[in-house]
Structures are given as structure tokens and as C-alpha cells.
Amino acid sequence: MGKTRKPKKPDHLKQVLAALEAGDTAQVRGILADLHPADIARILEGLPPEPRATVWAQVDIQHMGEVLLELPEAVRGDLVKLMDGAALAAAARALDTDDIADLIPELSDDVIAEILFALDKQDRQRLDSVLSYAEDTAGGLMNVDAITVRENITLEVVLRYLRRREELPEHTNQLFVVDRDDRVVGILSVAKLLTSDAWMRVSQVMEREVIKFPVLTPDKEVAAAFERYNLISAPVVDENNHLLGRITVDDVVDVMREQAERERLDRAGLREAEDMFASVWQTVRNRWTWVAINLVTAIIASRVIGAFEDSIEKLVALASLMPIVAGIGGNTGNQTTTMIVRALALGQLSETSMRALFAKEIRVSLVNGLVWGGLLGIMAYVLYHNISLGVVMTAAMTLNLMLAASAGVLIPLTRLKLGRDPARGSSVLITAITDSGGFFIFLGLATLFLV
Amino acid sequence: MGKTRKPKKPDHLKQVLAALEAGDTAQVRGILADLHPADIARILEGLPPEPRATVWAQVDIQHMGEVLLELPEAVRGDLVKLMDGAALAAAARALDTDDIADLIPELSDDVIAEILFALDKQDRQRLDSVLSYAEDTAGGLMNVDAITVRENITLEVVLRYLRRREELPEHTNQLFVVDRDDRVVGILSVAKLLTSDAWMRVSQVMEREVIKFPVLTPDKEVAAAFERYNLISAPVVDENNHLLGRITVDDVVDVMREQAERERLDRAGLREAEDMFASVWQTVRNRWTWVAINLVTAIIASRVIGAFEDSIEKLVALASLMPIVAGIGGNTGNQTTTMIVRALALGQLSETSMRALFAKEIRVSLVNGLVWGGLLGIMAYVLYHNISLGVVMTAAMTLNLMLAASAGVLIPLTRLKLGRDPARGSSVLITAITDSGGFFIFLGLATLFLV
To answer: I need a surface site. Which of A45, A156, A413, B47 has the fewest CB within 10 A?
Structure first.
């Protein structure tokens, strides 16, 4: 019976804490020895600085590189500081070149020199070629361990060649067929290799339609293509179709996870993933930009209200009703933007559909404004026995929801036209517009018709 | 030279629109014939209902099933309505059983019967077994096309067996080694198979440590494990370790994308992904719950203000300053929650760290409150020449940010204790608390000390 390595082991953090309390570092080492680097990373992240350093010292040096890769940058940086150059070089040597490239930004020049010195010539050239591309491109994602074959040999020869290698690079589901100038002419899937007759030639069984990535393709596009076409690996080529390397699905899965995480952090206005045990000062620094931006928009909204203080003094009910108008505007505006950003991401917004969509969003906001604004108007009347106040409430809600719909459509489209990410920051901007706009519309109408 | 199938073709929607305008359906058919089902889905989604139906009629029936799978449910439902039972059955037959299972919820009983009738006995049993598990479990994700081998045979025999099959299931990177009761005892990676000597026995080269999923494992956990352990495929087993099927990384990538999409929709309070060309009425229905919830919380906040109308009448500056206190509270509370939810998702919150974290968040909010609140206090003094008003402003900001930090920590933890998703709905709740709380604290302090 095979031993089962369960995908989830929620109590290892507890076990490690217990062993630390007992001062039994040998036991810590024993626990860690059985764990996957990803699990060790989770434990380290869950520990305060001091025990974290103790546990880190118990990690097998062969696994340190992989563990570092699994950690968010804030924690990774702290652990790297605990290691000397020789240890770092040893940890790096156990990694693939594309993974070493991911660690490089954290390392000092001395350590980098030490690592380069420790690598053999071929690996050094590989690392060099990966490092020459930005981290968020196909070139930055690729590994340089692709197996290539020529199209005129038989499968028998390919099989013998593979057997002589004794090991295949991880996630090798296809071999790349190249011509004598290293240009990609096709791919030979391992499945074909296993199921075809051995006397056939590569050219007879290879696939000539190859999904390949120019080396500067943004990583988001690579991820989208892997998802659409269910890829396991794909070649990376230069402008002349020369094979430079290959991207594997595990790296793409990491890109997807990082994208989702980045999105979550952006939404809350956090600069980077925080180390749970970071100091108060580090935490404040990570969060202050967003607080400052929101403070500025809040002060603007506050000054809009300030301009109508005379009206509020005369009819104080305005003060308690105005936040409703502003708040609901922000909510519905963000609903609109979410749908627009989605359509943009899927490349579905043509000129025609854009106009249709805009018209629809305005109509939706009109319906919402009349229905919800109508209800609020009735509520205002019931509370303050003032019919005109109710009418102003309904009118203001309707107008602000229409403003919200317009902003919700136009802000992401404008950002896109300016070459920016349509999603980032849209939410702050919409809320700013619907807050200030909502206060202005409601208090303005009230000033005109009520006081 | 191999033909290049580029990963991104942004102009196909335009080409299709042009062909439609010219009334040339043959050309539409020609464009679609070269495209991947995922790309056809993107085009269909980008078209209004009428041309969408026209284009749908030009899709090859062999691809219809895969195209349907790539569409969001709203659009999929509309297209299914355009097809008769025979066409649906034909489209389904071209799919894997796990993919047919994903389509079933959209189909009428008649069509399901027709599909079942069209399948052979083995496929019918497979479909049955996949359908008996919830869609969001390992069982719902799995396919039943795993290749199994016994441990006492030689690799030579395995190779001959594979060659006789002529085709391997997609993403076959490993074969499952089972005993005579179909219990999983190990895995034989294709890489090992290709690089080991053919006279060796499976038992000599197989991996005995198998990452496998009990059939009821939630799909989120499956996705996390695939990401952590860089898996391409993994076996699904019942409680007695019998092999039921296998999960492949392409399905996991879909789960990850759906999770990210679900999160985005939840955040904006959208029930499901909208068809861009849905009617106003359908759109309003998709969005109304969220608007209603926010309306209720806004009305509560409004009533808190209403209770202090006397104070506002006496000191109207309160009306323009109060939204700042409330707003910044919501922003910082959501920052705190984002970090807590992240730590919870990674399983890093022990009892000790929870207390430390809570203490840190309170300290961060204290610093923020004094710094930003101090600035606002000065602003209030400059605007209204009232020192006490400035002091109240600073105090209210500090207290509301501390309330925000507490809510930001406690709400996700409480939701988790109640067995709910800690992320969902937290944002609405925190904003509700910091809005009403902010108004109450600021207006309450003002009433006590200023008027």
C-alpha cells in the first residue's frame, strides 16, 4: 500500500510551535523533513520573527531555495538577511535557472557573484538569458531546459535518446521539433511518441500548428492563452522563430495566483502582502498611500457639503439624508465598472456594443433611481412630513445613479485609452465622483426648490 | 516552417461583424472553422442576441459542446434554447464525460435522456458516477479516463499496451498503479517510463508517495494543492482508496479562474456574470439584492445622524465633517480584513498570533488616527476657527479607526467560527459599522463637548 501524502495538513504549525516550546529543535527538523517546501513556507509565514529564525535554521539547505520562492517578498527578504553568501549560493544551486532569476532581486551583488561562480557555464548562460527579460514577460517566465529533436529522425531514435538522458525536465509533455537553425517547426507530444509506431519519423507524427509565445508577450496574456488552450507547456521564441525556452503550466498557475492576490491587495489599497508580524511602522507605511488618497477625496466631498451649509442650517433633514444618495451611487457605479472591466478583459467591446452598453447602463440606473429613489422619497416624506423633500430625494437619487452609471462606463474606457489598466483605481475614482456628485446634486436641488 | 497559431487574435470579432454586415454567412463559417472553441465563445459573448444566433448556426456541431463550456451561464442558456434535442445530444457526445456533467444543469430532461441514449454503456456509467458528486468537489471535477497498470508487469509491457491504445487521454503525465481491487498503490510517471530500462518492473520505478484526493474534497482545496505541489494530474479515491478517476490541471486552472471571477462579482454585489446584451430587466434583477442591502445600511446610518439633528442645527460644520470620519473608517477596516482573510486562507492564524495581530492592528489604527485625525483636526480649526471642534475631530477619527480595526479583525474571524466564508460580505458589514459608528462617535462627542 502506498503511503498517502495528504494535500492539507493544518496542524503542522501547531506541532512546530509545540516542539519550539519544548526547545526540541531536532523534532522541528524532523517535522520539516517530511514536508513539501510550500508547506514549510506556510509555517514560516505563520511564525513571529524570533521562532521564524529558529525554524529557518532547521530547514534542509537543499529545500531553502524552493521555500524562499513560495514566500511573499516581505518575509523572503527577512530570511535572506539571515543567510550568508555561501548558504545562499548553495540554496540557489538547487533551483532551476528561471527560479534563480526570481530570487535575484532580493540578493546583494556579492551573493549574485557567488552564485554565478558556483554555476557551470551552461547554467550561467541560461540564467543570463532569463535575466535579460522582464519578470512579467514570457522571457521572464521561461525555463531553458526544453528538449529538442529534428524532424527527419525516427521515433525509435527519440526514445533511445530520452532513455540515455535518464531524466526529463519537469512537465515535459512535448518535445520541440527544430530545424538546424533552432527554429521551431513543430511539436512532438509525448502521447504521440508513446502511441505511434517506433519506425515512423518525427515529421510524420508531429503537430505543425504550434501555439508559441514571442519572448516579450506579457505574462497575463501567456496565462490567458494557457487557460484557453489547456496547455501544459509551450515554446518561447524570438522574432525570427528561434527557440529560446519553454513555459510550463506550474509557472502559469503561479502567475494566476499572483494576479488574484495583486487584485485583492490593490482593491484594499495595500502596497504589498504584509508579513503578519511586521512592525507597526512597516504596516502603516504599506497602507498610508491609500488612506491619504481617500482622505483627499473625502475632504473634497466635505467641501461640497460645506458650500451648502446655509441650506442645511435651514433644513437639517438634508444632513441625515445626503449620505444615502452618495453611498448608493458608489455601489451601483462599481457594479457597472465590474461588468465593463470584465468585457474589456475578454476583448468584447466593439464600437457598436459600447454604445449599446452605455445606453443600457443608463436605462438600468434610471429604473433603479426611480424604484429605490421612490422608496426613499416616501421614507423622507414619512419621516419629515414634507412632500417636496421626498420629491427632491427621488430626483437626486435618480440623477446620481445616472452619474454613477456614466462614470462606471467612462472611467475604465478612458483608462484603457490612456494605456492604463482599466480596473486599477477605478473604484476610488467612481466613489469620489458619486460622493461629491451625490452631495452636490441633492443639496443643490434642495437649495433650488426647498429653502 | 510550421504555421503559427497566435495566442491572441483581437480582430476576429471585427471580421465576423464585417462578414455579418455583408450577409456572408459562408465567410463567418470560414472564420470560425480556424478558431479554437474558446475564441469562438469570446466572439459569441461579444455579439447582441440576433447576430449571436446567426453566428451560432455557423459553428461546427463537433465544437458546439466545447464552445458552450467556455461561455458564462447566462449566454450558454440562451444558446442551448436555440438547439433541438438531437443537436444538443450530438454536441454533448463530442465531449468528455466530466464536461458533459458540467452542461447537464442547463439541459431539459428530454435532452438529457437523449444524450444518455446516445452514449455507450461505459460512458453512461462514467457520466453517472461524475453526476453523483457535487460540482464543487473533487468528484465533480474528475474525469474517469485514468489509465491503470499493475505493479508486477514490466515497462516493456506498459509501452506495448500504450501503443495498442493508439491514443492517450489528454494530460496523461502519469499512469496509476492499482492492486487487483483497484486500490491506488502508486503512480508511474510517463517521464520514468520513457527514461527507465524497459525490462524493469513497474514496482521498481513507481512513486509510492501519491498525492490523491478523497472524492469529496472541496474544489478550492484541490486547486490549492495543485498549485502548491505543481501537479498536472492526480487520482481521486473513495474512502477505501479505490481509484474513482483523475483530475487534470486544465480543470484546476478553470476552477482558479472561476474563483477569481466569483470574487470580483461578489465584491461588486453581482449575482452572476451578466450577458452584456441582457435586457434592462435581467440586469436590474442581477444587481438589486446588493443595492437593497446597501440601502438598508445607509438608512441605518442616516437614522444615527437623524438622532443628532439638534446638534447639527446648532453647529452646521458637523454636517460637512462627519462623512470624512465615516469614510476613512471603512477604508482602513477593509485593509485590515484583507490581511486577516489572507492569513486565514493560508492557515496561519494560531491563538497566539491572533492576539498579537489584533494588538498590532489596534496600534496601527491608533497611529493612523492620531496622524490623519490630527491633520483633519487642524483643517477643521482652520476652516471653522474652533479649537474644540478640531479636538473632537481628531478624537473621533482615532476612535473610529480603532473601531474599524476591531471590526476588521473580528468580523472575518467570527464568520469563520460560524463556518462561513470569512471574505464574503465582510466589506458590507465593516462599512456599515464604520459608517454608523463614525457618525455616532463624531456627533456624540460633539454633542457632549461642543453644543
So the answer is: A156
CATH number assigned to the domain comprising residue A60: 1.25.60.10
B226 vs A: CB within 8 A: yes
B209 Cβ under 8 Å from any chain A Cβ: yes
- Say which of A327, A346, A356 has its CB closest to residue B45: A346
Interchain proximity B38–A229, CB inside 8 Å? yes
Mean pLDDT of B128-134: 83
Q: What is the pLDDT of residues B153-196, one digit of tens each?
A: 999 999 999 999 888 988 999 999 999 999 999 999 999 999 99
Backbone phi, then psi, for B408, in 5-degree steps? -60, -30
Q: How many helices (H) and strands (E) does chain B have?
A: 22, 6
Q: How far away is chain A from the Cα of B153, in angstroms, using its nearest Cα?
A: 17
- How confident is the model over A89-114, as pLDDT tens digits? 888 878 877 788 878 877 777 778 87
A166–B335 C-beta distance less than 8 A: no
Interface of A with B in 105-134 (CB under 8 A): none
Q: What is the CATH number of the domain that holds A157?
A: 3.10.580.10
When CB atoms are compared, the residue of A229, A295, A302 closest to B36 is A229
Name the minimum distance, in Å, from the CA of A134 to any CA of chain B.
Answer: 20
- Give the whole-angstrom CA distance, residue B6 versus residue B39: 12
Q: Do A7 and B303 touch (CB under 8 A)?
A: no
Q: How many residues does chain B have?
A: 451
Q: Which of B201, B229, B250 is the last residue of a domain?
A: B250
Same domain membership, residue B225 and residue B95: no
Query: Residue B4: is its pLDDT beyond 70?
Result: no
Residue B355 burial (CB < 10 Å; 0-12/13-18/19+)?
exposed
What range does the domain containing A370 cover? Answer: 280-449
Residue B23, SS3 per DSSP: coil
Residues A236-260, mean pLDDT to the nearest whole number: 91
Q: Is the pLDDT of residue B9 over 50?
A: no
pLDDT category, A10, cuts 50, 70, 90? low
- Point out the residue among B163, B337, B363 whose CB comes nearest to the CB of A195: B163
- Residue B324 in contact with partner chain A when CB distance is under 8 A: yes
State pLDDT tens for residues B293-304: 999 999 999 999
A&B contacts, CB < 8 Å: 378
The answer to whether residue B50 neighbours chain A at the CB level (below 8 Å) is: no
Whole-number Cα distances in Å, B355 to A48, B352, B358, B360, B413: 12, 5, 5, 9, 12
Q: Tell me the mean pLDDT in the region B45-55.
A: 87
Q: Is B307 found in the same domain as B284?
A: yes
